């Protein structure tokens, strides 16, 4: 068991958790962990935001049953595998501009900490319709410039990095075709070790695995349309699981209220 030593609700749909998982302390830039709350819970791939001593920190967007369970009840995790994935190539690029959406700020912060040491200028533009930027202060402590944008445009950079949404990465790529661009692909990940093939991505016409070959790829090589067409593969099951869990939460709430009356 891996204890959750701290849980901070940033907003109704964002959660920061600290987990005691000593084996993640050697994590390199842009790697992730695969966590499971209970033995039969859905495995969740989470970018490693940071590591402090023997604790790893994760940003969680509560979008489905498993992430909501983490928020509502988890005090420890059954399983934490990692660090997983090929590390991001850390070197001097010059001006590195990150474009993020949703939880994409988590890998962005992690990469920025590593890239800062290579004397890069780091800027982050977060695409948000409601103006919310998770981890704002943490991001401002490492990036030279942080802004919230409503939409993406053409960007002047030596390297573009995008994370948080396949559609976002596809758009950044389409609008900035002459600029080197590394993107984090967002794929379903079940085992994280290359056995189930559910996380396959077409890169330069070849099948690659997001879990072991990724999650970072040159964006101009990725078949984004193919990846996006498989995003909703488990949508129906995820919806049903979430509805079921919301019913459990409502019943709990009712029991609590009637006990108080
Ligand atoms: S998650 Fe199963 S092969 Fe990648």
Structure in words:
The protein is α/β, with parallel strands linked by helices. The protein contains six helices and 16 strands. Strand 3 and strand 4 form a beta hairpin. The chain is globular.
How are the SSEs ordered, and which strands pair?
Elements (H helix, E strand, L loop, with lengths): L1 E10 L2 E7 L11 E5 L7 E4 L2 E3 L2 E7 L3 H8 L3 E2 L1 E6 L10 E7 L3 H12 L4 E7 L8 H5 L4 E5 L9 E5 L2 H10 L5 E4 L15 E4 L2 E4 L6 E3 L5 H6 L5 H26 L1
Parallel strand pairs: 9-10, 9-12, 10-11, 12-13
Antiparallel strand pairs: 1-2, 1-7, 2-6, 3-4, 3-8, 5-6, 13-16, 14-15
Helix pairs in contact: 1-6
Bound molecules: FE2/S2 (inorganic) cluster (FES).
The site of FE2/S2 (inorganic) cluster has 12 residues, from loops.
CATH class of the largest domain, named Alpha Beta
Please outline the major beta sheet: 6 strands, mixed
Multimer state: single chain
What do the pLDDT scores average to? 92
Q: Report the order of strands and helices.
A: EEEEEEHEEEHEHEEHEEEEHH
Q: What is the count of structural domains?
A: 3
């Amino acid at each position: 068991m891996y204890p959750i030593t701290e849980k901070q609700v940033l907003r109704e749909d964002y959660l920061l958790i600290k987990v005691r998982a000593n084996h993640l302390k050697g994590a390199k830039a842009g790697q992730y962990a695969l966590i499971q709350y209970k033995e039969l819970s859905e495995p969740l791939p989470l970018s490693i935001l940071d590591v402090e001593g023997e604790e790893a920190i994760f940003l969680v967007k509560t979008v489905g049953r498993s992430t909501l369970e983490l928020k509502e009840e988890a005090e420890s995790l059954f399983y934490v595998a990692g660090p997983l994935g090929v590390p991001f190539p850390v070197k001097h690029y010059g001006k590195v501009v990150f474009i993020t959406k949703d939880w994409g700020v988590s890998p962005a912060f992690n990469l920025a900490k590593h890239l800062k040491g290579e004397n890069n200028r780091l800027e982050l533009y977060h695409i948000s319709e409601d103006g919310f930027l998770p981890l704002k202060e943490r991001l401002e402590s490492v990036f030279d410039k942080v802004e919230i944008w409503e939409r993406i445009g053409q960007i002047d950079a030596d390297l573009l990095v995008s994370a948080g949404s396949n559609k976002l990465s596809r758009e950044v790529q389409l609008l900035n075709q002459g600029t080197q661009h590394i993107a984090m692909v967002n794929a379903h990940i079940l085992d994280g070790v290359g056995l189930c093939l559910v996380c396959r991505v077409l890169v330069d016409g070849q099948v690659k695995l997001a879990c072991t070959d990724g999650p970072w790829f040159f964006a101009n090589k990725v078949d984004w349309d193919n990846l996006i067409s498989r995003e909703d593969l488990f949508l129906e099951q995820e919806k049903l699981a979430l509805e079921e869990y919301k019913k459990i939460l409502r019943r709990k709430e009712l029991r609590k209220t009637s006990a108080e009356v």
